[in-house]
Every structure is written in C-alpha cells, then in structure tokens.
Design brief:
Radius of gyration: 15 Å
Family: Belongs to the calycin superfamily. Lipocalin family.
Pfam families: Lipocalin_2
Strand content: 35-45%
Subcellular location: Cell outer membrane
Function: Involved in the storage or transport of lipids necessary for membrane maintenance under stressful conditions. Displays a binding preference for lysophospholipids.
Strand order of the largest sheet: 1-2-3-4-5-6-7-8
Number of helices: 3
Distance between the termini: 23 Å
CATH architecture: Beta Barrel
Shape: globular
Number of domains: 1
CATH topology: Lipocalin
Helix content: 10-25%
Structural class: mainly beta
CATH superfamily: Calycin beta-barrel core domain
CATH class: Mainly Beta
Keywords: Cell outer membrane, Lipid-binding, Lipoprotein, Membrane, Signal
Largest sheet: 8 strands, antiparallel, barrel
Order of helices and strands: HHEEEEEEEEHE
Oligomer: single chain
C-alpha cells in the first residue's frame, strides 16, 4: 500500500505547500545554480541529510528520482521507509521550471494545483552531490548519487549551507543503512 508523502522536490510538505504555494522563489539572498542541465540531474538521488520536516518525520532510506518528460516537466518520485510502521511510502509529483531550463529553479507539486519552490543551490560539476532548498531557510536537503558522502564532500556542502544562512547544526543525517 502506498502512503501519500510529500518530499523535497525532494518534495515539500502539505502544510508548507499550502502556506507557501504562491512563493515560488528561493529564499532571499539565495541563487539557484545556473548552467544547469536537467538531463544530467535526472535519475536517482539519496537523501544524505535534511532539516527535519513534518512530512518526512522518522523516515529512513529516503530517495528521490527525477525523470524528464517530453513536455519539459519532470516526474518526481520520492520514497522513504517508515521503521515504526515497517513499510515503504512513496509520493509521485511533477516539477516545472520557473524560468529558463538552465537555471535550477523549479516548482514542484505532489497534489492538485499547489506548487512549492525547489531550488538546487549547489551542485558539483559531475552531478554527484547537490544542495537543495525550498522557499525559505527552514527547508534544506543534501543529496548524493551515493548513500554516503566522503568527508571532504560533506564538509564542502556544510560550508556552503552555513554560508547561505542555513542552520546546519539542526540537520538530520538520513539513515541509508
């Protein structure tokens, strides 16, 4: 049985979506990556860390998979395991660019006409790690193509997040074991 979950693109939660459905911009002072290529970004990403949110609370083994569609939208499939319930949950959504497709600023929806901001704010050249935020600094995700980061990659992303004003001391490190 599939449960409705909302993730960052990486999905965003229903409460945040309703409160911020009209805020499709990144947080003040934050600039999404430019020179972005969705074809390189698509595929499976592991959530390495997140600022805790209501819609992912308690989930482990969280992943997000992005697939470019012919119409230019991006299908988003977020999965996570709820160890208390002993079951997997999945949410399927749709993302659209808010402007040029070479700028990593999208809006994402997991239900109805409600969209929320999804911004890739750091991305390495080989599209192996990413830092993603929502419409404000209370939503942050560290994503990787692998379940774990090297210490150097981890420190680089933490430094970027801290410089951007995110509360890195509040990050929850996602269990991927």
């Amino acid at each position: 049985m599939k449960n409705k979950l909302l993730f960052p693109l990486v999905g965003l939660g229903s409460v945040m979506l309703l409160a911020a459905c009209q805020n499709l911009t990144p947080p003040k002072g934050i600039k999404p990556v430019t020179g972005f290529t969705i074809q390189k970004y698509q595929g499976k990403w592991f959530e390495v860390a997140r600022l805790e949110n209501r819609f992912e609370k308690g989930l482990t083994h969280v992943t997000a998979t992005y697939q470019l569609q012919q119409d230019g939208t991006v299908t988003v499939i977020n999965r996570g395991f709820n160890p208390k319930k002993g079951q997997w949950s999945e949410s399927v959504g749709k993302a659209k660019f808010t402007g040029s497709q070479d700028r990593a600023a999208l809006k994402v929806s997991f239900f109805g006409p409600f969209y929320a901001s999804y911004n890739v704010i750091a991305l390495d050249d080989d599209y192996q790690t990413a830092l993603v935020c929502g419409p404000d600094r209370s939503y942050l995700w560290i994503l990787s193509r692998q379940p774990h980061l090297t210490p150097a990659k981890r420190q680089m992303l933490l430094t970027k997040a801290k410089q951007a004003g995110f509360a890195i001391d509040q990050l929850l490190w996602t269990d991927q074991e």
